[in-house]
Design brief:
Shape: globular
Oligomer: single chain
Bound molecules: 4'-deoxy-4'-aminopyridoxal-5'-phosphate
Distance between the termini: 32 Å
Number of domains: 2
Largest sheet: 7 strands, mixed
Strand content: 5-15%
CATH class of the largest domain: Alpha Beta
CATH architecture of the largest domain: 3-Layer(aba) Sandwich
């Protein structure tokens, strides 16, 4: 990777230079006043980004899968029922994690590129009466976004604890944890939060903590157990220190800087910027004949795009885009893995980034002998942003 290359995969993303500089700052002790101040403030800012004023934030060293593990292991006791609304690879991973902790899991699976029909979810909620309902806000394997608000409200109506995997949505797409009735929303640092990989972020509602406190058996995962982490997060929020596992000091510095930038932009403006750039990028690829994996515009994420290769082109073609300085990702959903590719456009992404990405795609298509209306993509992109 040269410093001039564009990493346009759906995470890790391109990071802001100011955020990256924090990774090389002198590492303070985790009990130093300087670290306590920055970690405490970061935890408060996480609540603001999740729009969860009543929530309890957790920021723990690990990837997004740890955040999923924390949600499942702290809420589930063996025999509890869970309903998973699956829109792809990452929803299925959540089902596997829930099962690992002894849940009786029902999976409602959508076709690749589509969502589960809402009435089916309602009917299963009524039939299964699950303790936990999970959904993937944006399944990164398909670029499909679910209606997290409607699903969360349905879950609440049926008394389920609602868990939203927001790894590919938080800080990019609209997510209002408190207002929508979400009990655990979770993400990872390397996506729209804009920090190098290594942090699991999660916010728990008062109901989620109540359910955790009402457990009859200890949490089966030692590292994930809120019994260990709750006193730590509460201490830093009160600008005190406590120890369970050494916090990743420089990642927290980077998080502090990125959250500062995110809140300075403002959540509504940030969501609007992601939508505007996504709409323009999607208009551009449509103009050169590329078809999206999401079956309808309303179910397409605005943090990424999943696009079918045109006829006669396969994953080897991504190397031609790479030669043009832009890194894209291949397919991931098992049903269509070899037929599509993925583009991330989240975080500090700009007009220039999506234009350069589209230009590299057009150039690589031309170099592969694919016929299309040359230049039409950039024209459509510019028109959409005008
Ligand atoms: N959920 C979603 C929606 C994701 O996109 C990812 C990662 N791409 C994960 C969970 C897992 O995160 P990680 O790779 O950081 O463990």
């Amino acid at each position: 990777m040269s410093e001039r290359d564009l990493l346009m995969i759906p995470g890790p993303i391109n990071f802001d230079p100011g955020v990256l500089r924090e990774m090389g700052a002198p590492t303070a002790g985790h009990t130093s006043p300087e670290f306590i101040a920055r970690f405490g403030e970061s935890l408060e800012w996480v609540k603001q980004v999740f729009l969860a004023p009543t929530g309890t934030p957790f920021v723990i060293a690990g990837s997004g899968t740890l955040a999923m593990d924390i949600a499942a292991s702290n809420l589930i006791e063996p025999g509890d029922r869970a309903l998973v609304v699956s829109t792809g690879y990452f929803s299925d991973r959540m089902a596997a994690i829930l099962e690992r902790y002894g849940a009786a899991v029902t999976v409602l699976r959508a076709e690749a590129g589509d969502v589960v029909v809402f009435d089916r979810v309602e009917a299963e909620l009524a039939r299964v009466q699950p303790k936990v309902l999970t959904m993937t806000h944006v399944d990164t394997s398909t670029g499909v976004a679910v209606d997290a608000r409607a699903l969360a409200q349905a879950g609440r109506r049926h008394n389920a604890l609602v868990v939203v995997d927001g790894v590919c949505s938080v800080a990019g797409m609209e997510l209002q944890q408190d207002a929508w009735g979400i009990d655990i929303a979770l993400t990872a640092s390397q996506k729209a939060i804009g920090v190098p990989p290594g942090l699991a972020l999660l916010v728990a509602s008062p109901r989620a903590l109540e359910a955790f406190r009402a457990r009859s058996k200890p949490v089966a995962n030692y590292y994930a157990d809120w019994t260990n982490w709750l006193p730590i997060m509460e201490a830093y929020l009160a600008r005190k220190t406590a120890y369970f596992g050494t916090p990743p000091v420089n990642l927290v510095y980077a998080l502090h800087e990125s959250l500062r930038q995110i809140l300075a932009e403002g959540m509504a403006a940030r969501v609007a910027r992601h939508k505007r750039l996504s709409d323009a990028f999607k208009a551009g690829v449509r103009a050169i004949g590329l078809k999206q994996v999401p079956v309808r515009a309303e179910v397409a994420a605005t943090t990424m795009s999943a696009l079918y290769y045109p006829d006669g082109i396969d994953a080897k073609w991504l190397a031609k885009v790479r030669e043009r300085g832009v890194v894209l990702a291949g397919g991931l959903h098992p049903a269509i893995r070899d037929k599509y590719f993925r583009v991330g456009h989240m975080g500090v992404v700009s007009h220039a980034d999506i234009a350069a990405t589209l230009s590299a795609i057009e150039g690589a298509l031309l170099a592969s002998g694919h016929e299309f209306d040359e230049g039409a993509g950039l024209a459509a992109l510019e028109k959409a942003l005008a």
